[in-house]
Amino acid sequence: MSDVSKDADTFICVHRFLNKWEPLTYFKLRNVASHPLPLTNTNTLNQSYIEQTTISSIIQKPRINYTSSEAWRCNRGVSIRIRIDSNQSRLYCLCPPSYYGDECQYQNQRVSLTVQIRVSSDWKKLFIFLLTLNDNEKNIESYNYIEYLPIRDCNTKYNTYLLYSIRPKNSSKKYSVQIDAFDQLTLTHRTSWIYPLEFTFLPVHRLSVLLKNPMFKIESIKKQCWPPCIHGQCLSYINNQNLTYCHCESGWSGIQCNVNHTCNCAPGSLCISSSICLCPSGRFGHRCYLVESSCQSQTCLHGERCVIKDIRYRYSNQNQSICICPQGCTGDHCEYRENQTEIDLSFDDLETIPSSLLIHLILIEETAVPKRTSIMKKIRFDEYSIKILTSVMFHMAFAQILKDYYLIIIHENPFIFEQISTKIISSYRCRSIVELFDEIFSNRHILKRVKYYHIPCQKNVELNCFYDEVHICLCTRDRQANCFEFDHNMKYDCNGSNFCEHQGNCFLDDDKYPTSAFCACPNCYFGSKCQFSTKGSTLSLDIFLGYHIRSSNGLNQQQIIIKIAIMLFIVIFVFGSINAFLSFQTFRQKHIQNVGCVIYLYASSIISMIIIIFLALKFSFLLLIHIGSITNRTFYYIQCLSIDFLLRSLLCTNDWLSAFVAIERAMNVVKGVKFNKTKSKQLAKWMILIIMVFISITFIYDPLHRNLVDDEEEQRVWCVTKYSSSMQTVDWIMNIFHFSLPLLINFISSLVIIFILARTRSKSQKTKSYEEHLFEQIKYHKHLLISPFLLVTLAVPRLIISFLSSCMKSARDSWFYLFGYFISFIPSILTLGIFILPSKICKETFKKVVSNMWQ
């Protein structure tokens, strides 16, 4: 080697560490104004519990010396020496499941199975998964099981072997792996998966699966299995809905559940076959007769549940059971509080408080992309501030409400285990570049516009932050833009297990070890799963009033909206009862029942009385059910189907009866002396019956689409109407028809009466002009115009609620809908003012009825 090459090598060796590349700086948080000021930083939280690991003393035991040939004698097994007598011993091999033979020299035909499990709910519930290797006749070749606790085992991968029952396996048969999920507390079947083994010629088949356990138990399907199930249910596999199988009753097995076997399992356990017993929590062993009593001595604080660890994977120095601790607690008995940062967030000058918001915590690491942690927080209807607890360290925090971002916390030093009080202030809203520039500028390529990002900070002194489609930018003290990457379109779907309805976003409280999930609902939807809609005609008293009722509280502890609703109901009930009774007594007099219109009004007074009774039942049941005084689910289901349907039908019936009254009055004026009163009475009786049947038929879809929905978060049951898009169109058309047509008939009939009378008078009395006669008739028959005018006015809120393209975006907006709902019942309590008092004959009859009642 030449001297030159030696010198070059020496130079490179000496200087290779001198010229280091500077690491890439992603983002620096410097020269920024801290917010909020003054910053509340009080370390008042409990000190975190530091679990100390005790190293047990190692007991020195005599060791057996093996020769090198003996140590390697067992292929992938463990060699043991068994003493035969005092002078002799023999070497044996303990083989793993994948090998057999006296020296583990033969490989077993097997299925190597790797399982990882994800659940979308019930993170604190203990499951048991039964893994079976079956042939095409559903004979079980071998099995294993997994005891799975989601909050403990959500990231665990389970590896196991499933062996064939004979060596070699029967190559003429087809095999599959079936996995069945059970709730270990009740041993109820949850769901099943099937994985056929396609390459049966392979001696070892590797199978890796990710199981997504559904929220609800899979129900029996309508179609029948073939061959049919004899002692079991026909179900479909969750990963292949086209395949069906028979889920057998305890004591039965086989492809048709037709093989009876003697169950030797302990009472309370589940007998899968003659050799397989599934044990409930607290029992173990081949037949579940052994009892594990460690949870009886384990005391879990905060009312939490004790769970026994799987006896097969438990070490002697470990606790035999664990406590499922609530969020923020730790320790063997949940006795310690975790240290967390507490953020008290209030809403300063926002016009409306949202039902939920996102908190984005940003941790700055100069040599890495800023780390983002998103927390969804639901805001109850009676809350005006929220508290966020987190153990995540962060420098900045943004609150996201829909598509708006608000800077709520920023500091150059990271926050950890602190208490912070801050507000969502409109002046700290991060504005979009579309607002700051224009749409043309915002559509440019990012490289062509990012150099202008300092301009908004320099022109607008009050601007604290802004954002584009890929960044969020901060304005520093020297009015420069400091930007970092931010994904505005992040998908929130609970790791692919989104259970939220109506395109709601799903959030886990912890990405690694979740204990709960939440839904952030779009506008017009709310509920723990976004299952409740406030769109148009689906509104009911349950939707906009039910969530305001505080369960297990008396009336004095209810919110102000509930107390006002009770007062409104009492007013409507009292006036409605008096109106219905007096109207009924007036129209039942025989001397005025000489025409059909009185028959219509007589029927309307009876229906008004029934409406008031059903409204009283509806409101009372709603209070009692959500307070907790009524818990019978069957009763709730019956009233869910019936009362709203009957109220809706009866209200429309009253509208149509008032329209028939207007039609008959118009016909009376048109025909004059030729008007047949007897026929009008007979026609009225038939029309009342026909319109009631007709309205019931047109609204019959309403109870067919009603059902009870369990709200696990609120621990309530709700009566919900769910329409498809086509049924929503039908419902909208029915509302237009039943609301608009009776009102239009009322108005047109009144105009017909006035114009015909004016024309008749002008022909007989020519001393006055037609316009003068028309004015006189309007003045004389003003009650005919008052009735439809009042009906139209009182129906307007009802029409607005039903037909607005918008919706009640939050249950905080319940006031308008509450008043609109009660206003829709006012026509039923104003029969006296609309039909009796404006008419001379009816008014005189009413006075006689009242005077007779006082005597």
Task: Provide structural commentary.
A hairpin with a 4-residue loop joins strand 39 (706-711) and strand 40 (716-721). The termini are far apart. The protein has four domains: 69-100, no CATH class; 109-323, no CATH class; 339-490, no CATH class; 536-854, Rhopdopsin 7-helix transmembrane proteins, CATH 1.20.1070. The chain has 855 residues and is an alpha+beta fold. It contains 20 helices and 40 strands. The strands form 15 sheets. Strands 26-25-28-29-31-32-33-34 form an eight-stranded mixed sheet. It is found in: Membrane. Keywords: Disulfide bond, EGF-like domain, Membrane, Repeat, Signal, Transmembrane, Transmembrane helix. It comes from Rotaria sordida.
Brief digest:
This is EGF-like domain-containing protein. This protein has 20 helices and 40 strands. It is an alpha+beta fold.
Which terms summarize this structure?
855 residues; alpha+beta; 4 domains; eight-stranded mixed beta sheet; four-stranded antiparallel beta sheet; 20 helices; 40 strands; 33% helix; 25% strand; disulfide bond; membrane
Chain-wise SSE layout:
Blueprint lengths: L2 H13 L52 H4 L6 E6 L5 E6 L4 E2 L5 E2 L2 E10 L7 E9 L4 E9 L1 H4 L3 E7 L11 E9 L5 E8 L7 E10 L18 E6 L2 E9 L3 E2 L5 E2 L9 E4 L2 E3 L4 E2 L5 E2 L2 H4 L8 E3 L12 E3 L5 E2 L5 E2 L3 E7 L8 E8 L7 E8 L6 E6 L3 E8 L2 E12 L3 E6 L4 E4 H4 L2 H4 L3 H4 L4 H6 L5 E3 L3 E5 L5 E5 L19 E4 L8 E4 L4 E2 L5 E2 L7 H6 L13 H28 L8 H32 L5 H39 L5 H22 L2 H4 L1 E6 L4 E6 L3 H40 L5 H11 L1 H22 L10 H10 L7 H6 L3 H15 L1
Parallel strand pairs: 5-11, 24-30, 31-32
Antiparallel strand pairs: 1-2, 3-4, 5-8, 6-7, 6-9, 9-10, 12-13, 14-15, 16-17, 18-19, 20-21, 22-23, 24-27, 25-26, 25-28, 28-29, 29-31, 32-33, 33-34, 35-36, 37-38, 39-40
Helix pairs in contact: 10-11, 10-18, 10-20, 11-12, 11-13, 12-13, 12-15, 15-16, 15-17, 17-18
